Amino acid sequence: MAEEIEEEVIEKKSGGNMVLILIVVLLVVLLVGGGLAAFFLLGSDNEGTSSGQMQQNSQSTPAKRKSSGRSSNYLTIGPMYPMSQFVVNLLSESGSKYLKVALDIELDSEELAPEMDKKKALLRDIIIRALSSKTFEEVSTMKGKDRLKDEIVNKINDVLTDGQIKNIFFTDFIVQ
Question: Higher confidence at residue 39 or residue 101?
Answer without folding.
Answer: 101
